[in-house]
Amino acid sequence: MATSSAHAELPAVSAKTSSIFSLFSESAAIAEVELKKVLRDPTELFTRAVQPTLWLVVFGQVFSRVRGIPTGNVSYLAFMTPGILAQSVLFAAIFYGIAVIWERDLGIIHKLLVSPAHRAAFVLGKAISSGFRGGMQCVIIYILALALHIQIQWKVLSILGVFAGVGLGSAIFATFSLIIACIVKSRERFMGIGQVLTMPLFFASNAIYPLALMPKWLRVVALVNPLTYLVDALRGLMIAGGQNTHNMAGNFGLLIAIFVVLAAIAARLYPTLVR
Amino acid sequence: MSDAQTNGNSSGAAPGAPEAAIETFALTRNFGEICAVDHISLGVPHGEIFGLLGPNGAGKSTTIKMLTTLLEPTSGTARVAGFDIVAAPEEVRRRIGYVPQMLSADGALTGIENLTLSAKLYGMARAERKERIAEALEFMGLADAATRLVRTYSGGMIRRLEVAQAMLHRPAVLFLDEPTIGLDPVARRTVWERLRELKERYGITVLITTHDMDEAEELCDELAIMHQGKIGVIGKPAELRATLGEGATLDDVFAHYSGGSIHEGGNYGDIQRTRRVASRLG
Questions:
Q1: Higher model confidence: residue A106 or residue A265?
Q2: A1 in a domain, yes or no?
Q3: At a CB cut-off of 8 Å and minimum separation 6, what does A192 contact?
């Protein structure tokens, strides 16, 4: 396959590194760039703290007095804190795909796709950076929880588990968002769909009330909603005395499986952005 | 390739000739009922600057998308830098560079950060990366602005940065979609001069799309005029002018082979995209 051009052979030299390693380093390169941009302009991180604050300080404080929701041996405020963390992750990540539409209109995606990098690296890079953003939201919720005197489980493993779960959840919803972006390809349609999705995903989950309270049909919906498993895992890990209703390994296993499937779909669809 | 040819669908270097950097074989792309690129066969020899001319909607961008592996042909194929775009797109990608029509450098990053990302995506090791980035910055005259955010760059600087990104891995073939659209005359000349130097110094084959007649005349060694998805004519600028008789300009040639004025054609999307680029570069 050699051509008469000497140049043709030059770039191939560094391409001999193993495929998995290059997939990892390409994903890291994409994630690094994304994170650099957030840290350079962190206003986004602060504005994201507003909504969870409202939910915990206003909604949570008031509903704590109702005492109509069975939350086991923890207060309602403590019960809903992991739910609000998961919700803030969902609401932020579900709009992540809009950046891709923007980059597509600019021509950045065209340039990325002409490079020999793995198509999956573009998806994984975005997912990793979304995971890190989720981690920053975690910090905010922990601070809020402290301020509201919610009993937190201060075990290293539990905290690491919370960050891992949030990172994973954030990656899932960002990748889901990427898939929507690849399908609709326009900002206006994307915003519409994003708005339509967030509230149902939130309400059809165990974020602010237990599954046991739900009518049967809603419980069925909640059980196919990934947010439910994220909330359940966080509830078992974050709050002192908090309990997960599903098996913890099962929660994580399921979330990982969902992420793998979504990432595979997104990597398939990503090149269609420029067609 | 010495004479201008007017036999429509097959022209240029003989397909199969080993020296061609780009060869297309009845390359075709349909979008539903519409045939955007209609059985084009052409060849571009190594080390040439080749211009694809045509009104908006003629199929230039679709052709470039297929040659850069962004879009699969409906039928036919092409060989770029020795590899088949359908059978071996990864091999093609390693050997080409691409500067899209739109602004593809990231304004929220510095020049160096943009270049580093490109270098990493091409799998360059750290030492090689540093060396190539410094070389590309120097070559494109951006060394002083390397650590500034790209959003503070002028339009011409952004274009040069994009060319720097596209040349980092020493591609055999460089594709540029409307490389100087929206640039002021000075910036435009600088880009032309750099592209010529890329060809001279590194032997890179360059394919550009344009509908700027000055650009076609001054920059390109050879031109193909596209119209409604077909190649109307291929030849050196002077040869093309000669086919229409004495005193003919490239504008005349263009009008003759594209069946009208250069300003005709193009749909809403094309216009919107062009304006957006122009306003951002301006």
A1: A265
A2: no
A3: none
Residue A2 belongs to some domain of the structure: no
Q: Which residues of B touch A112 (CB under 8 A)?
A: 121
Inter-chain touch A10–B170, beta carbons under 8 Å: yes
What is the C-alpha separation between B131 and A165, in angstroms, rounded? Answer: 41
Instruction: With respect to residue A82, please indicate whether it lies within any of the assigned structural domains.
Output: yes
Q: Are the beta carbons of B123 and A14 separated by less than 8 Å?
A: yes
**Please, are residues A8 and B95 in contact by the beta-carbon 8 Å criterion?**
yes
| Contact list, B99 vs chain A (CB under 8 Å) | 111
User: Judging by beta carbons within 10 Å of its beta carbon (0-12, 13-18, 19+), is residue A217 exposed, middle or buried?
Assistant: exposed
Chain B residue with Cα closest to A1: B82
Distance CA B229, CA B30 (A): 10
- Does a structural domain hold residue A66? no
For chain A, what is the mean pLDDT?
A: 91
Domains recognised in chain B with CATH numbers: 20-281 (3.40.50.300)
Query: By residue range, what is the domain housing residue A182?
Result: 19-61+72-274
Alpha carbon distance B119, B101 (integer Å): 21
Per-residue pLDDT of A108-154, as tens digits, reads: 999 999 999 999 999 999 999 999 999 999 999 999 999 999 999 99
- Sorted by sequence, the CB contacts under 8 Å of residue B31 that are 6+ apart come out as none
**Which of B72, B110, B120 is the best substitution to test chain A (most A C-beta atoms within 10 A)?**
B120
> How many Å lie between the alpha carbon of A44 and the closest alpha carbon of chain B?
14
Residues A219-237: tens digit of each pLDDT: 999 999 999 999 999 999 9
Residues of chain B with Cβ-Cβ distance to A110 below 8 Å are 70, 98, 100, 102, 104
Q: How far is CA A57 from the centre of its chain?
A: 23
Quote the CA–CA distance of B172 and A9 in Å, as a whole number. 9
Number of domains in chain A: 1
Q: Do A11 and B171 touch (CB under 8 A)?
A: yes
pLDDT tens digit sequence for B124-183: 999 999 999 999 999 999 999 999 999 999 999 999 999 999 999 999 999 999 999 889
Q: What is the ipTM of this complex?
A: 0.86
Tell me chain B's radius of gyration from C-alpha atoms. Answer: 18
Q: How far is A268 from chain B (nearest CA, A)?
A: 13
